[in-house]
Amino acid sequence: MPDSVFLSGDRIDLRPIEEDDLEFLQREINDPKIWRAIGRSRPVNGPQEREFFENVVCDDDTVNLLIVADSSPVGTIGFNTIEWEPRQAEIGYWVAPEHHGQGYGTDAATCLVTYGFDQLGLHKITARVFEFNEPSRRLLESVGFTREGVHRDDVFVDGAFQDTYWYGLLEDEWRSQAA
Prior knowledge:
Helix content is 32%, strand content 35%. By secondary structure, the protein is of the alpha+beta class. It has a domain at 7-126: 3-Layer(aba) Sandwich (Aminopeptidase). It has an 8-stranded mixed sheet with strand order 1-2-3-4-5-6-8-7, with helices on both faces. The longest helix is centred in the middle third of the chain and has 15 residues, at 104-118. The termini are far apart.
């Protein structure tokens, strides 16, 4: 896999997602611990993963990066939606189950949030987390995000409707906590 580091954290590097990464992405996105946490209810085959790569990863209106630890891919992170006029973006991420609890997601989120405010000039970064995903809620809160609201019975996952918690982080909040 290519070694073109875009951002570096304390424990991870973030680099562009390349075609060589599609096998890793497809394998991990089909793991129940991942697809459930991101609200995906159907499996992804090779052509679908390639289509995601070509239509989403290669799109100029998103930022999608591979999280790499010790030269191995461990997950993805990105700004799924960037709204340039109000200067807002939505962050999304996942870390492969065998790498949970090692701080990779928190380090990656910190890197991407810093990049969003310092380089993209964002004013606000948002995130969505399902009610059952306590580790992701803790991650966001550790980076400085505030829970702003709840969309009740918003998605259908594992045979039940789940609430979606909305989080936000404003640039001035980020800067004041970093000072």
